[in-house]
Amino acid sequence: MSNCLLCGNQVRVPLRFANLFSTTTESWLCTSCRAGFLSAENKQDGNVRAIFKWNEQAENFVERYLNMQDDELSKCFCIEVGKKVRPKLAYLPLSEAGRQILVAAAIPCVMLSGQNQQVEMGVFLMRSAEKVQLAKLSGVHGKIVHVLVLFEEELSCE
């Protein structure tokens, strides 16, 4: 058994034959912490796809992961990120924190310096607010065919 990376409670891993040979685990979070992350329910806007909705649990995760530099949390969403990436694409993370999540999920990463070799690529964002940084990627924009966002913030009506 292991402990939840967010709350510290014990995580129970179901005993399955496949788990005996697996090098990674799906259970870095306990059931109640996992339930706090609400699925974006296949929310897709053009080539942009979100995995989770922004809520209080997401805000707590980002606070611990980024501001408190709890790098162990990069393992939390390996399974979800792995399911949403497009096969045969390397992803450009726009932050070191995003790169750590991709590395933990064994997703190929590309750096801006190596972008000349990449014909098509994806971009990985921690939050949809980082979409502003996409405009700064002149020269790369035509090669971006998929944008994966971990947390999609709700648009506020003002």
Defining key terms:
5-stranded mixed β-sheet; 5 helices; 23% helix; 158 residues; two-stranded antiparallel ribbon; alpha/beta
Summed up:
The protein has 158 residues and is an alpha/beta fold. The protein has helices at 31-35, 56-67, 78-84, 96-104, 131-134; strands at residues 2-3, 10-11, 44-45, 48-53, 90-93, 121-127, 144-152.
What is the rounded distance between the termini?
47 Å
Form type: globular
- Estimated radius of gyration: 16 Å
Described by its quaternary structure, the protein is: single chain
What structural class results from the helix and strand content?
alpha/beta
Topology, pairings included?
Elements: E1 2-3, E2 10-11, H1 31-35, E3 44-45, E4 48-53, H2 56-67, H3 78-84, E5 90-93, H4 96-104, E6 121-127, H5 131-134, E7 144-152
Parallel strand pairs: 4-7, 5-6, 6-7
Antiparallel strand pairs: 1-2, 3-4
